[in-house]
Amino acid sequence: MKSPRRSEGHEQPLLLRHPRTVLAIAAVLLIALGVIGAGTENRLDPTTLDVPGTESLRGNEILEEHFGPSAPFAILLQGPAKAIDRQGPAMIRALRRQPQVTTLSPWDTGAVKRLRPKPDEALVLVDFHVGTRTAVNDVVPHLNHVLDETVHEPVEVTQTGYATLSRAIQDESIDATRNGELLAFPFLLVILLLVFRSPIAAAIPLAFGAITVVASRGILYFFTGWFEIDAFALTVCSMMGLALGVDYSLLLVSRFREELAAGTAPADAARLTRLHAGRTVVFAGSTLLLSMIVSLFLLPGALLASLAGTVCMVVILSVTVATVCGPAILTLVGPRVNLWRIGGPPREGRSRLMVLVSGALRRPAVATLVIGLVLLVFAGPAIGLKTGPPSPEQLARDNPARQDAELIDQTIGQGWDAPFQVVAVSREGPITGAKNLAAINEFQRKLAKTPGVQAVIGPERATKRVEPLQELGNAVLSSKGNYGPVKQLGKLGRSLAVAAGGVGQLREGITEASSGAGLLATGAGRAGKGAQLLANGLGRATSGSASPRGPNGWPAPRKRRRWGRSTSSWR
Fold first, then answer.
1. What stretches in the chain show pLDDT beneath 70?
2. What is the pLDDT of residue 36?
3. Backbone CA torsion sign across 143, 121, 108, 125
4. Where are the beta strands (DSSP E) in 99-250?
5. Which of 41, 51, 62, 537 could be disulfide-bonded to 300 (CB atoms 3.0-4.6 Å)?
6. Cα(75)–Cα(125) distance, rounded to whole angstroms?
7. Dmax over Cα atoms in the chain, in whole Å?
8. CB 525: neighbour CB atoms within 10 A?
9. Are 310 and 230 spatial neighbours (Cβ–Cβ below 8 Å)?
10. What pTM was computed for the model?
């Protein structure tokens, strides 16, 4: 029997002198990352469509800066009219218990008629003023709980929205990833058995792939605290982790078996494998890592950037695992890597794979052309890929979220679950000025006549209610500081109070609108408050001259005699 050949003059690296210690430390880290990675799913961000430098992102930033975040939902009630009129308001009251909720329903004064197209159908628009991550992870289950508690037979309730669809797509993607992993492992094991013809040799690359997947999820958990990581990054961890983990370790196992077949001792074979095959692994990983780093500066949006960053992390992890843990495992396994070989040892010169490789090396131009044509054929179907934002069509037809969204579209019309939000900004004067409100009113009328527009919820009614207030204010200012008799001021003050009360009522109605209507409702509400303060001040002016002000802007107390005592009163 041929004895193993040892290399002279080469000292074993530290990692190969203590392989058990290396593997013990790696096992502890793996278990820790596996436990931590179990909670990664709840820390991922839902898919966002914000692309830096676009008008859409600029509009969203203005919207969130002035009015806060927005997460709209559309709720459809179907059933007997009396039951809907009884359960609908109760549902709305339950939703309004949270301060960050705005609703628009058919039971609001002056609500959109399209919200109640039939007596047995009613649509309620709800806006939770929270971020997208909170809406997907927390608001969707909370909303479903409220609907289950407040709506019951004979009324049927259905809800949809961007957050609902994003959560459904995220859940389905995670489930598909798990199912894909369960299917990929048996297929990979069969392929590796055909390549190595030994279950031990086939199990090593498969184990390295599983290690990379589990460890990458644990590392991704920490990244979610520093960066916005899209939910699809979890799928990338599984796909790339399994592929790279198997690929890089396969090179090591192949080279190790070649060294053993040449008569090299297991320890020296592991050292040579780490030296030569490890260098190939580092070069391949560095090339992929460099390409992903470059793409980080080219890909727009958080989605693609997070996916590229995840690939970078998986590449570094897979190269580290292969070059550190791989030689240590091979040192301990030794000749047992060929245990239980299926079939006899391959005969020299009879390997079909080596025949193909030798032919490709002799004719590199022909091999490049043939391989390129094969790759183009496989890449051809990518031309028919349809890209777009998250939508019900990305879900399976039997998915409840897709069925609910399609039901609302068929019953009420499309667009209610994701309405357009128009932000109006005034560069000259307040947004509630006469010219600004008139321009917004005209824009709203033109927009409502656009084909395909279901409804426009805006400040049109606010313009009509504020007109009397503006006329009275203009009348006062036109007198050049001479406000006339006290009696006329009192009449003006009472008129302003009536106008202000109308604006206040209108403000409350508009506040109950959807997120789009809520944008300008705040401005109208502020105008109502200002008018109320003006009316109060003018009302007080009917009894005499203006009172002196205190340090906080409130009228200073005066001393007066009443019933023989000195008292303080606010005037």
1. 1-18, 48-50, 110-112, 299-302, 343-354, 357, 388-389, 459-571
2. 81
3. positive
4. 101-104, 121-128, 156-161
5. 51
6. 6
7. 127
8. 19
9. no
10. 0.65
